[in-house]
User: Which sequence fits this backbone?
DNA sequence: GTGAAAGCGCTAACAA
DNA sequence: TTGTTAGCGCTTTCAC
C-alpha cells in the first residue's frame, strides 16, 4: 500500500475516473447518488485524505486566513484570536498566526509570507512601531482582502473593527464625575496610536460637556505600563492642586496608580477614584477591585472575521465600500471608583 | 499586466526556462552568479511572489506547523504559542492554530484538518475531554511528526515537553513546611490529567520525606476554578482538625481559597499559608501577593518547537527514540506563604 | 451523469 | 551550467 491515497487510486478501484471521484467528494450537483455512495465508501475504506495543497493550487483558494498580531502573549490579542478562530472554523477556514512583536519589519514580513502562501484574507492589528504602509498597499494591489482590528490607522482607507475609544473615554470620565470626584486626571498612552489618542479626546469631550475646565497639568503621558501608573501618581501628588480621580488609559497603568496611592495611604475609592481600560483578568481580583472598560475582545474577533467573510464574497463583484465597524465599549464599574 | 507573475513569466523575459529561474530563486548550487543576478533583478522588477502552494505541492513540504491548543484565550497557551511562533519564524516555518475548546471532537477534527493540509508537523496540548486516541494514532500512521506539550498522556508513547509537576508539587509542599506550617492541605484537579495527578503525588512524596503523615481528609478534589478554591476552604475549615496551609493545584483555585479565607478573617500568611501553581499574571498584584510555581511557558514553546524540528529532520532516517523533555519548575515565593 | 484532457505553478531527474 | 520533460494531486472545462 502506498503511503498516500489519491483520487486516482479510488477511481481505479471503482473503474471510473478522477473527475467523477472529485465530483462525488465535492458534492457536485451532477452526480448520481449511487456513484457518490460508492466513492465515499471506497474513500473511507482506503483511508483517503484529500490533499488540500493540491486542491488549493487548482482552485486558487486555500481556506486559510492570515492573522498578524503584536504578540500572542498579550491577553487581549489571545482573546481576539480566540474569537476569530472560532468563527473561522465554523466557516471552514483555518487561521495562520504571525506575530509582529511590535516591529514594523516583522509586520512587513508577515504580510509578505501571507501573500506568498496565497491565504484567502489577512487580518491585522498594527504594531506600535510605525514606518510606511507599503506592505499594506502591496497587499491591496494584490487584491488581497484585508481587515484591521483594534490597532488601525486613519491614513489608510481600510475595513476595520474597533471599539469606540472616544466614547469609552467619555464614559469613564463621566462616571468619575458622577461619583462625586472633583478633579479628574488622565494617564494617556503613545499619541501616534489612534486608540490612545481617542481615549484622551473622549476624556476632554466629557469635561467640556460637564462644564469642567481642561487642565493640561492633569494629563500624564505614559507608556502603558505599571511603572507609568506609579510615576503618574507621584507626579500628580506633587501638584499644587492634585486630582482626586484618575482615568487610566489601560488596566496595568491603573494598577500602578493604585499601588502608588496605597503606598501613600490614600484611601480608594473614598478619597481617590480610579478607572482603567481593557478589563484585564486581574482587575476583578485585586483590592479594591478595578473599575474598567471592557473591549468585547472575543466579539471583536467574531465581527472582524465576519467582515472578512464579506470581503471574500465581494471580491468577485467590484464592490468597494469600506466598512468600519465600531463596537460599543462596556463599562465595568467596581470598587475602585464606586462611592456608595 | 497579469495579476500573478510566475517563474515562466520571468523565464520568458530573460529568454531562459522555468527550471533555471527556479534554481536561481532557490540558491541552487549549480547556477552562475550572472544568471542568478539577472533572475533576481527581473523578479524584483516584475514584483514576482513565489507561490508557496505550488511549491508545497511539488516539494511535499508546506513549511507549516499545526498547533492544537484548548483555547487561545487561556493565558498559559497564548504564552506557549508565543514561544512556538517565535522559534518557528526564525526557522522559516509558519504556525497554524486550531482550538479544541477542550472538546475531543474538535481535537480530532483539528488533527484531520492538519493531516489534509499536509503540515510538516503537529504540536498538541490535549483537551480535558478524553475519549480514544485514534486520531493521534492516525497521525502517527501517516508518519506525521507529533510533539505534545504540557497536557500529555502516558498511554501514548510520544515525544513531549512538560514541566516536572511531581517535583513542583514537592517543592510547594516542602516550602510550606519550611515556613513553619503544620498541617498542609492540597486542592487537586481532575486526576485523569497527568499534570494534576503528578502534583498530588509530589505533595505526598514531600510529606513522606518530611516524616509527616498523609491525611486523605486534607485533599479536596476540585475542578480547577475560583469556586473550587472557595468550596475547598469551606470544607477544610469544617474539619475537626483543619489545616493551616494549602497547596492549590492552580492559581485561580488558590485565589478562591484566599478570598474565602479573607471572608473568614483569617490572616495570610500569619495564620494560614497559600501557594498556587502556574504563575498567572494576576498573582503578583493581589494582596497578599500569591506564591506560585512558574511553568516556563515561553520556554516550553521553544523547547517543544526545537524537538519538532528534530523530528522533522529525523523523519528521513528511521530513528525512533521517543524524547520526553522535562523542564524544571521555578518556585516564585511571595507574600501568601512567606512568614518572616 | 460520466469521461477525456488540460493545467494550476512549481521542482527535480535526466540530458546535453 | 542550462534546457527538456514530467508530474505533484486536484479541479474544471468540454465533449458525449
Assistant:
Amino acid at each position: 500500500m502506498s503511503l498516500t491515497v489519491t483520487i486516482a487510486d479510488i477511481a481505479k478501484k471503482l473503474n471510473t475516473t478522477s473527475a467523477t471521484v472529485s465530483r462525488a467528494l465535492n458534492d457536485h450537483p451532477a452526480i448520481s447518488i449511487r456513484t457518490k455512495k460508492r466513492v465515499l465508501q471506497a474513500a473511507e475504506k482506503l483511508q483517503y485524505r484529500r490533499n488540500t495543497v493540491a486542491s488549493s493550487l487548482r482552485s486558487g483558494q486555500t481556506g486559510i486566513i492570515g492573522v498578524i498580531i503584536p504578540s500572542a502573549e498579550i491577553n487581549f490579542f489571545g482573546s481576539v484570536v480566540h474569537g476569530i478562530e472560532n468563527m473561522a472554523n465554523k466557516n471552514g477556514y483555518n487561521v495562520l498566526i504571525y506575530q509582529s512583536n511590535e516591529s514594523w519589519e516583522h509586520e512587513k514580513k508577515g504580510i509578505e509570507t501571507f501573500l506568498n502562501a496565497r491565504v484567502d484574507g489577512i487580518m491585522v492589528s498594527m504594531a506600535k512601531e510605525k514606518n510606511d504602509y507599503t506592505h499594506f498597499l502591496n497587499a491591496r494591489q494584490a487584491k488581497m482582502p484585508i481587515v484591521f482590528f483594534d490597532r488601525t490607522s486613519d491614513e489608510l482607507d481600510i475595513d476595520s473593527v474597533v471599539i469606540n475609544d472616544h466614547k469609552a473615554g467619555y464614559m469613564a470620565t463621566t462616571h468619575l464625575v458622577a461619583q462625586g470626584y472633583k478633579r479628574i486626571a488622565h494617564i494617556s498612552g503613545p499619541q501616534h496610536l489612534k486608540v490612545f489618542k481617542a481615549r484622551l479626546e473622549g476624556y476632554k469631550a466629557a469635561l467640556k460637556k460637564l462644564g469642567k475646565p481642561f487642565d493640561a497639568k492633569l494629563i500624564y503621558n505614559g507608556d502603558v505600563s505599571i511603572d507609568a501608573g506609579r510615576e503618574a501618581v507621584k507626579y500628580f501628588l506633587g501638584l499644587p492642586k492634585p486630582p482626586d480621580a484618575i482615568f487610566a488609559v489601560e488596566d496595568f497603568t491603573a494598577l500602578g496608580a493604585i499601588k502608588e496611592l496605597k503606598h501613600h495611604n490614600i484611601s480608594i475609592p473614598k478619597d481617590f477614584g480610579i478607572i482603567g481600560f481593557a478589563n484585564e483578568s486581574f482587575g476583578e481580583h485585586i483590592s479594591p477591585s478595578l473599575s474598567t472598560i471592557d473591549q468585547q475582545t472575543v466579539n471583536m474577533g467574531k465581527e472582524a472575521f465576519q467582515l472578512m467573510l464579506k470581503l471574500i464574497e465581494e471580491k468577485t463583484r467590484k464592490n468597494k465600500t469600506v466598512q468600519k465597524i465600531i463596537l460599543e465599549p462596556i463599562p465595568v464599574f467596581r470598587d475602585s471608583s464606586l462611592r456608595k
